[in-house]
User: Fold this.
Amino acid sequence: MGLTRRQRAMMGGILLCGALGAWSCVLWLFHPPTESVKADLDCIWLMSGIEPTKTFRQTLRWWTGPWCYELVPYYRPMTSLFFWLEYQAFGPNGLRGFTLVHLLSHLAVVLLAARFLAALLDWRRAAIAMVIYTPGLTNLFALGSVQGALPIWKDSCDIWCSICYLSSLSLLLAHYRRGGNGYLAGSVLCFVLALTFKEMAYTLPFAACLVAWHERRLTRSEWGKLALFFGAAALMLAYRFWALEGAGYRQGTNGAWLPRTAITLGGPFGLLLVHGDFLPLSLICAALGIWFVRARREPRPAAALFLTAAILWMLNAWYFQLSVTDLAFRLMLPDPWYNAVYVGAFVFLLWRFLKNRDRGQIFGYGWVVVTQIPLMAMPVGDHGYYLISLGWAVWLTAALLDLLEQLRGWEPSRRLMALIGRRAAGARAG
Assistant:
């Protein structure tokens, strides 16, 4: 389906925002730290399998065995092949070429994500979400950032996998909206292709269920279609086990999977819980208690909040083995007050989320839950948040629109807008 002039303009703005958000990648195009493609240790390891591969025929071994860096046995044949093709095109000193492919691939993800969200939700939400996603504004609430996968070319596998991931879900959505088994077949094929780039694509069957839920197609009659994705995942997993002669490489998290999950799913609120710092939360409860007393004249919820604040205060003292004097001294520092405002803002958004139960916002949070599953099995770097932060961008978009709606109905806001309207009318009359 073609785009209107306004939609094409929005896509152009989103693409520009994506390019500006990838400033670190653009910087490497003009001022690379080195000309060599061996930009860091991981790149050196990857080149250990790329450089000795002289012919296309030799690349076929990656389809029946581990990828280019054989000492870490993953099954990523398409990633290995793409790296090899880049090396053939740009050579050992072609860092700019590798970076250009990396940047263009990222911009392809930006366009695909925008079209997918526009079709799933609407153009306004899609545009706002991409403005939040592409510069990494999700990290303002410690929710991960797209920037972790930029600028080094070694993380292109995350981006290429995301291209196939989003293409698969876009085709599934088209199948639900327009019908036709061709879209469904294409969706399954894109899913299989995504699995040849990176293992994080194994979460896609759950994302497909999420799309079906959003479209109200998560019914008994539709489970046969979704079973295609789970069946393809099972077959690919069995083939991977055969190709790698076992389960392949797996990094342990050293027990960090639970704190990481709490932080990924809870943002700054989860961060405080993991660190055991309950002092900012006690300040939030105390402030809410005062508000219930002063503004609402409701003593019972105020008493409950004051009691909660006292319990959190004692928990904080117990956890850090602090005396009352130490805690009092901490209150004289700006850190707990800053965190209280920061976490309080996020808790307010969470409260509105639970109250509104907006379907698009639930989809965004469901996306976060699904795409963070691979992070539970490995000590991943920031590049692992490439897809996760897209879900948080959708969630924050809904929260922002809800907040603007609340401000529009706020009495001081209405008075201010009325005053601005009168001043503007007076200026036009003058």
Notes: The CA atoms of residues 210 and 366 lie 7 Å apart. The two ends are 48 Å apart (CA to CA).
